[in-house]
Amino acid sequence: MSDIPLLPEVQAFLARRHGQFIDGQASIDADSSTFDVVNPATTRVLAQVHQASSDELQQAVDSARRAFEGRWRDTSPARRGELLNRLADLMLQHREELAQIETLCSGKLIQISRGFEVDYAVQFLRYFAGWTTKIQGRTASLSLPSAGSEQYMGYTLREPIGVAAGIVPWNFSIMIAVWKFGAALSCGCTTVIKPSEFTPLTMLRVAELAIEAGIPAGVLNVVNGAGGVLGPALIEHPAVAKISFTGSVPTGTGVGVAALKAGLKHVTLELGGKNPAGFLPDYPVEKTVDGILEAGYMNQGQICASAERFYIHRSRIDAVQELLAKRLAAIPLGSPLDERSGFGPVANQAHYQKLMRFFQQARAEGGEVIYGAESADMDGYYVKPTAIRARSQHDLIMREETFGPVGSLLAYDEVDELADYMNDTPFGLSASLWTQELSTALRLIPRVEAGTVWVNMHNFLDPALPFGGAKQSGIGREFGEAYIENFTELKTVMIRY
Ligand code: NAD
After folding, report:
1. Which of 122, 192, 293, 459 pairs with 369 at a CA distance of 20 to 30 A?
2. Rounded to 10 degrees, what is the CA torsion of 167, 211, 108, 226?
């Protein structure tokens, strides 16, 4: 097994000093403290990044506000679309460079970095570019009484909301940022993106490409640093009109409260979950195991929509368990820069330690380890793909998001019991049903409490369809037409004539 060679431009990028991207250029406050970016596959420090100072944060928001008022809001929709498409072209031209930087920072398999962080992110960016010319209000027929000859007309306008802050997690540092700035820019808003402190580098490079694409300075700014410090400062900044947050439920809840307290600011929260996959009694064992692997283990399970709870009919669960153990054991763990690896490290040390605590707890609660539940004997933050047979729906492993490669299996007897189990959680991001009986699936779909329900598939997103959480998994929707609401204010106009 061997790693692909790093491109010279990746090595040159890593050797630079890193900080923020403000008003069209790199910004480094030499006096501000730095934090390390660690390669989770080796635990070695890759780069150091200067934390944004409060002056820099101010400059980033000021720059976004100036770019909004002076330019971007009034740039024609067609031109906005053209520039976003040009950025998409440049991201593809720099595909390998962006993919390698992402893999080094996050431990994501290089094929996933190429396919998702670049190709798929570009697909979303082009989708948003296509909407720029289609954002519209409506005209309405009014019923106001007319005493004489006066008449009325009424219509609505969708106006860009202003400066939007995008707060991004570490699991997809480019793609989730694109969901935020692509959507914001297409509506005529400008942005300040705050990447996760674990993956702060890729967006600095994307912001440079945005300038090369011709997107005016100040439209896309990037500030880096600890979320607990920078996040509240961004949210409270009076010129920030909207916060689009993706991350964990506890942090997101705090962000929502802070946004309301900071002047009833608009907020979209895309949060985590404890997503269920329910396999109906007719579904064959081998296909069930394929489904579990698809739903739970891609990107080491570090996908918000991944399933972590697997409900299998009692008549099949033992056979499923046996085959699943074999299939998990056969996944080749290895360096994420080696194209033959099927499974890389988890993204950082804190996450690795959190998973170890989950394993301890699962054992203490009497969960049966089907496979894994331990680290792999390798240098980085490697955790074996894990499956645990839970004792009951009340086990911690069935209730709390691990955000890792950890599937918990539980047997059910009746279809009604399955629906109750699936909904027995405060979260509601996604869910999947697996059956060859379409009528069973169609009857169950309305009963499942989740923002997205898949049938015979899991973890697929398409820019044309809204995505977001029910219950405590979030507020608002991204993609589809739904995203336009996030970044525009609806203005009603009435005219008497
Ligand atoms: P996190 O909540 O710890 O951090 C997310 C972002 O918030 C980071 O940029 C962080 O620096 C910042 N942050 C931290 N404290 C903050 C504060 N007080 N105010 C403002 N910002 C703050 O999440 P994470 O560990 O980076 O990501 C994993 C979580 O994200 C999981 O729970 C996962 O389910 C969720 N997620 C959800 C989606 C979705 O679309 N629903 C997508 C990906 C990840």
Report:
1. 459
2. -30
Residues 247 and 363 in one domain: no
Closest by Cα among 201, 199, 212, 221 to 302: 199
Q: Is residue 74 located within the same domain as residue 186?
A: yes
Average pLDDT over residues 176-202: 98
- Structural domain that includes position 389: 275-462
Q: How far is the CA of 167 from the centre of ligand 1 (A)?
A: 8
267 and 302 fall within a common domain:
no
pLDDT at residue 389 is higher than 80 = yes
Q: Is 104 exposed, middle or buried (0-12, 13-18, 19+ CB in 10 A)?
A: buried
The answer to whether residues 294 and 149 belong to one domain is: no
Same domain, 226 and 291: no
- pLDDT confidence of residue 1: 65
Per-residue pLDDT tens over the stretch 75-91: 999 999 999 999 999 99
What is the CB-side half-sphere exposure of residue 90 using CA atoms within 13 A? 17
Q: What is the pLDDT of residues 452-474, one digit of tens each?
A: 999 999 999 999 999 999 999 99
- Sheet of 152-160: strands edge to edge? 139-140, 152-160, 488-496
Task: Give the Å distance between the CA of 368 and the centre of ligand 1.
Answer: 30
| Residue 407 predicted with pLDDT over 80 | yes
Question: Which residues surround ligand 1 with Cβ inside 6 Å?
Answer: 167-171, 176, 194, 196-197, 227-228, 231-232, 246-248, 251, 254-255, 270-272, 304, 401, 403, 429, 469, 474
- Cα–ligand 1 centroid distance for 324 (angstroms): 30
Q: Active-site positions?
A: 270, 304
Nearest atom in ligand 1 to the alpha carbon of residue 226 is 11
What is residue 70's predicted lDDT score, i.e. its pLDDT?
A: 83
For residue 292, give the CATH number of its domain.
Answer: 3.40.309.10
User: Is the pLDDT assigned to residue 147 strictly greater than 90?
Assistant: no
Q: What is the pLDDT of residue 149?
A: 92
Q: Which residues pair with 22 in a beta bridge?
A: 25
- 458 in any annotated domain: yes
| Cβ atoms 346, 355 nearer than 8 A | yes
Per-residue pLDDT, averaged over 358-372, amounts to 97
50 and 144 together in one domain: yes
Residues 45 and 83 in one domain: yes
| Domain count along the chain | 2
How is 306-318 classified by DSSP, letter by letter?
-EEEEEEETTTHH
User: What is the model's pTM?
Assistant: 0.97
